[in-house]
Amino acid sequence: MLRIVLTAALLCGATAVYAQELTTAQRDACMGDYEKFCKSVTPGGGRIIACLAKQSDKLAPACKKVLAEAEKK
């Protein structure tokens, strides 16, 4: 269930920067950080991505990389 919620949230980016669809590998890269820092965030409207971005200094290297690559596109 948690994976479905995160998947839906990541696909509903709030800004044009994160409006792209993320691959399964990209979502998997941030799952641990989501559970650690953003589990209480209500999915939708890009809120989870925004939460992860606010925690960027604490994110795992793989998740940081995914968010940085998504921002470039």
Number of helices: 4
| Rg (C-alpha, Å) | 10 Å
Strand percentage: under 5%
Taking the sheet with the most strands, its summary is: none
Gap between N and C termini:
28 Å
Shape type: globular
Strands, total number:
0
Organism: Bradyrhizobium brasilense
Pfam family, one: Cys_rich_FGFR
Signal peptide: 1-19
Protein name: Cysteine rich repeat-containing protein
Describe the structure.
- The protein is mainly α.
- It has a domain at 22-69.
- It is built from four helices and no strands.
- Helix 1 packs across helix 2 and helix 2 (24-38) crosses helix 4.
- It is globular, with a radius of gyration of 10 Å.
- Residues 11-21 have low confidence and may be disordered.
- Residues 1-19 form the signal peptide.
- It holds the Pfam family Cys_rich_FGFR.
- Keywords: Signal.
Topology diagram in text:
Layout: H1 2-11, H2 24-38, H3 47-54, H4 61-72
Helix pairs in contact: 1-2, 2-4
In short:
62% of the residues lie in helices and 0% in strands. The chain has four helices and no strands. Helix 1 (2-11) crosses helix 2 and helix 2 crosses helix 4.
